[in-house]
Design a protein that fits this description.
Helix content: 40-55%
Number of helices: 15
Distance between the termini: 40 Å
Order of helices and strands: EEEHEEEHHEHHHHHHHHHHEEEHEHEE
Strand order of the largest sheet: 2-1-4-5-6
Number of strands: 13
Mean pLDDT: 82
């Protein structure tokens, strides 16, 4: 992203226009006395960029201004946007926009609504309807639109926090911005992307739908199991009374019950007894076959054993066959020996391992055993003793109860939820195929890279850090704060002085912007406004000498120069990366402090009557 502020404009009540011009790729310094309006420039920039409340001083500044405006360069566009001065504490809803960057000589007239202007500028910042709050808080709801103003937290270091020991970002006293910072941080610095956020949102939606379907399926199955248990009890009672005889499965039982209540058919003791006898007879026949086959298998085994003994007795035949030439032979010797040898081979074939007959008998026995188990199961399902109703009234009450249950079963079947197994399988496959980049891994990598970048800044300014010059950068991702860590230790140090806190603020913001530029960030504009980083070294009320320079310690002057050199070096680094970056700094220091720094540009010196609202231009 490319962005810089070319000029700031104030349309005064006197009819004049006050303008302040800034340069790109420079550290633009406005220096001078206190109470001349330097800090007000930061408030005016914030006000023009859709602030919902303002901090512009009513005295001198706001009482003399009709409109405030900025001429900005955004990517390849030039805009002039202006906002009518607030009335008291109430910001104005009136805006002016020139999409060509034209700056009116006289006070502009409203020509655009805030919502339209904000939408247009947000698009240039890469913020559209897809950029949303990833997780909610007390003030911000998850899924709500991300405001352009949240990303401006990375563009200012006000005098309120420049030396703060605990806060590194502006507006953290406001709940809205305090909640916004951790929610947009990853998007701002390039840890996360809009595409990955959309994938993560899609994944969360799919997982919610999957959980809902799985819960629904489990609940439906639970109800179905409960009903089947009740149905089984009713079927068992009906069988016990001899009202039905069909006991094949649940559906057949339901059919029999329906026939019972609609056709008033019922079984009888004789019918049940006949079925019992029939199954018992079948079971007897099957058991008899199994016993017979087992007996046959046993006798066949004995037969094979006998044959084996006979084969052993014929072993000498093999010897005679091998020594046939050495034997004394008669005329029938050869025939006898051949017959004995053939018989021996047949016996060996009959007794060698398992035969097809062995396998067939085993399969037949196995099938009969399975048939016997089914018959035993059917027999157990029949009541051994028939129950009977005391009166016909009891019988009809039972039939009525059964009818009501069957009607309930019918309603349940017609209204039950459809089978969601395919939907569940599809969701599981879609979830598995959705490649979401783990943010935690990128957060760790970003933290390491940020610490490396900041370590270079520490090396450049180590003389200003005193005892902490050799310490290591330790960015706390969770707290969004920068600490210093003693080498070869895991603990961070309380750096103490406001001077060190000031440098930590500079380190963090420069490091963040360096990584944002490296990551090709599109949401955070490449500019930074710093309000009086020299505050730790002298107060605003210190007296100045005749040259307008405050009386300060030389060691403090050296630290200020190191801070300026750090800012100057950052502009050089950005340009070497092929990036543009602009800084605007409000200070009290003398211009000679940045002698030799090529990227520092003096905008104006607010002194000797010159101010944001010069005395000569006041109404």
């Amino acid at each position: 992203m490319k962005f810089y502020i070319q000029s700031l404009h104030l349309w005064l009540r006197s009819g004049q226009r006050r303008s302040v011009t800034f340069l790109p790729n420079k550290v633009n310094v406005i220096t001078g006395e206190s109470h001349t309006g330097k800090t007000a420039i930061l408030d005016i920039v914030d006000y023009c960029l859709f602030a919902s409340k303002h901090r512009i001083s009513e005295s001198v500044i706001n009482e003399n201004v009709l409109w405030y405006g900025l001429r900005i360069h955004v990517n390849d566009k030039v805009y002039t946007l202006a906002r009518r001065a607030p009335v008291g504490t109430s910001p104005s809803p009136d805006y002016f926009l020139s999409s060509l960057g034209e700056v009116p000589e006289s006070a502009p007239s409203p020509n655009v609504s805030e919502s339209v202007l904000k939408k247009q500028l947000s698009a240039d910042f890469g913020i559209d309807q897809d950029v949303r709050i990833p997780f909610g808080g007390r003030m911000l709801q998850a899924g709500s639109r991300v405001s352009l103003r949240y990303f401006l937290l990375f563009n200012t270091i006000s005098q309120d926090i420049i030396t703060h020991s605990d806060q590194f970002f502006d507006k953290q006293s406001e709940s809205r911005y305090r909640e916004a910072l951790p929610r947009i941080f990853d998007i701002a610095v390039g840890i996360d992307t809009v595409e990955n956020i959309l994938k993560r949102d899609k994944l969360a939606e799919l997982e919610r739908n999957l959980a809902r379907l799985q819960k629904l399926s489990a609940k439906t199955q639970e109800k179905r199991d409960q009903f089947n248990a009740q149905l089984a009890e009713t079927v068992a009672r009906a069988k016990g009374y001899g009202l039905i005889t069909d006991n094949t499965d649940a559906d057949a039982s339901v059919t029999a019950l329906k026939r019972m209540v609609t056709e008033r058919e019922s079984g009888s003791d004789l019918l049940v007894s006949a079925q019992y006898e029939e199954i018992s007879s079948q079971l007897y026949r099957v058991s008899r076959k199994i016993r017979g086959l087992h007996k046959f298998a046993s006798e066949y085994g004995n037969h094979k054993a006998t044959l084996k003994e006979t084969a052993d007795s014929l072993q000498p035949v093999e010897y005679l066959m091998r020594n046939y030439e050495e034997t004394v032979r008669t005329s029938v010797f050869g025939d006898i020996l051949k017959n004995l040898s053939d018989g021996l081979q047949q016996i060996k074939g009959a007794t060698a391992g398992k035969t097809p007959l062995d396998s067939n008998i085993s399969e037949i026995i196995k099938a009969l055993e399975s048939q016997r188990q089914n018959l035993e199961k059917d027999l157990r399902a029949l009541p051994t003793e028939m129950e009977s109703f005391e009166t016909d009234k009891e019988k009809y009450i039972f039939i009525g109860e059964t009818k009501a249950k069957l009607e309930l079963y019918g309603d349940s079947e017609s209204e039950k939820a459809p089978d969601n197994s395919d939907l569940i399988a599809n969701l599981e496959a879609e979830i598995e195929g959705l490649a979401v980049t783990p943010v935690s891994d990128r957060q760790e990598l970003f933290t390491s890279a940020l610490d490396e970048a900041i370590q270079d800044y520490i090396s450049l300014t180590k003389a200003a850090l005193g005892n902490y010059g050799d310490y290591r950068s330790a960015f706390n991702y969770t707290e969004k704060k920068l600490h210093l860590r003693k080498p070869k230790t895991a603990s961070t140090e309380n750096v103490g002085s406001s001077s060190n806190h000031m440098f930590l603020h500079l380190f963090l913001f420069l490091g963040l912007h360096e990584l944002i530029m490296q990551n090709g960030g599109v949401h955070v504009a490449p500019f930074l406004i710093i309000d009086q980083f020299s505050r730790p070294y002298w107060g605003e009320d210190d007296k100045q000498d005749s040259d307008g320079e405050k009386d300060v310690d030389e060691s403090d002057v050296a630290k200020v120069k190191l801070a300026l050199a750090l800012l100057d070096q950052f502009i050089t680094t950005a340009n070497e990366m092929g990036k543009d970056f602009q800084m605007i700094v409000f200070e009290h220091i003398n211009p000679r402090y940045w002698d030799g720094l090529k990227n520092v540009h003096l905008v104006e010196v607010f002194r000797d009557g010159n101010a944001l609202i010069p005395v000569s231009r006041m109404d």
